[in-house]
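Appendix C: a fully annotated inverse folding record. The material below is reproduced so that readers can follow the format used throughout the book. The structure is listed first as tokens, followed by the designed sequence.
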């Protein structure tokens, strides 16, 4: 079993801005975040395209790549690697009604330009993984788009990325809602089906996020298991969620400890990480957190994973088999609770 490698993104250390209020902490310089990630035991960094190249919309293609190479040198300086790069399409006004599913030719062309530049940035950072969070790929007004046409347009967009670079791997990170309320690719099943219809399904896989599965009313461990069974779990974003609300990105395991245990268990039992897959932490600090300890949510999430991993390694499979044979699942359930509670 490979040692688990942990990653986080620069956006995970932020000012505390949210839909319901402004920031509560000062900004942290990019290199300071990278340095601290190494200090707290992370192995790599997740990137949006403009995390790596902030002013990319106003730069030439060569300048974008050169800038990304400088970021790669910074990662090397601190012994870190880039896990993936994701095009941050949902921030731009041109993609307010979708990027790959836009109804406006110019906006769609911009989305593809950003996607191709994302692939360039990923190569410069030393990774072939491009992650798609299809944030606005759906509708705010159901009748505003032909859903069949737009889903095929989404598929064709992935095909164009696969054509652009023969080595790129596309990870789709599904989410059922927010910021759109009707997503075209809201669950792991949707993403797998979409990938299967592309011209090279072997290069399209999944990143499962705990909170997104919960928002869809699903179990994150089972979503991960489904992807693992098909050889398609190429990344995870671990966090937690208090029910089907807005996307909270709470620290891993703080709300649903048993569900977190089962996520660690399914990853461990199926050798996740042996092919270089990473345990991504996608968590937000509470707005009450002060700047002096603004990495605590990452440290806590990593520690919860490690504590649960110790529990998973102590799991008694012979006792489990005995309970299953006896059909005494109440006994098995209590065993799990005692294991988690330390009895």
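Designed amino acids, in order:
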């Amino acid at each position: 079993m490979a040692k688990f490698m942990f990653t986080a993104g620069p956006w995970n250390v932020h000012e505390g801005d949210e839909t319901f209020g402004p920031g509560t902490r000062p900004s942290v310089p990019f290199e300071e975040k990278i340095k601290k990630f190494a200090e707290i035991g992370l192995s790599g960094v997740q990137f949006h395209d403009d995390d790596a190249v902030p002013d990319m919309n106003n730069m030439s293609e060569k300048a974008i790549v050169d800038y990304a190479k400088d970021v790669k040198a910074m990662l090397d300086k601190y012994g870190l690697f880039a896990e993936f790069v994701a095009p941050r399409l949902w921030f731009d006004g041109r993609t307010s009604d979708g990027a790959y599913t836009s109804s406006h030719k110019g906006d769609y062309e911009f989305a593809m330009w950003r996607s191709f530049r994302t692939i360039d940035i990923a190569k410069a950072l030393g990774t072939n993984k491009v992650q798609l969070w299809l944030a606005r790929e759906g509708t705010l007004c159901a009748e505003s788009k032909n859903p069949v046409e737009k889903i095929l347009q989404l598929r064709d967009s992935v095909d164009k990325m696969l054509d652009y670079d023969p080595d790129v791997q596309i990870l789709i990170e599904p989410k059922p809602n927010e910021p759109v309320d009707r997503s075209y690719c809201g669950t792991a099943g949707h993403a797998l089906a979409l990938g299967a219809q592309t011209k090279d399904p072997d290069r399209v896989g999944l990143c499962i996020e705990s909170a997104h599965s919960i928002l869809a009313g699903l179990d994150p461990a089972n979503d991960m298991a489904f992807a693992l069974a098909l050889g398609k779990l190429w990344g995870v974003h671990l966090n937690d969620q208090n029910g089907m609300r807005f996307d909270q990105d709470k620290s891993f395991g703080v709300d649903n400890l048993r569900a977190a245990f089962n996520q660690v268990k399914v990853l461990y039992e199926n050798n996740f990480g042996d092919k270089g897959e990473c345990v991504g932490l996608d968590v937000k600090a509470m707005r009450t957190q002060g700047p002096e300890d603004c990495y605590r949510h990452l440290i806590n999430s990593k520690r919860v994973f490690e504590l649960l991993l110790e529990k998973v390694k102590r799991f008694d499979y012979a006792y489990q088999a005995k309970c299953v044979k006896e059909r005494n699942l109440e006994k098995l359930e209590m065993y799990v609770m005692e294991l988690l509670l330390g009895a």
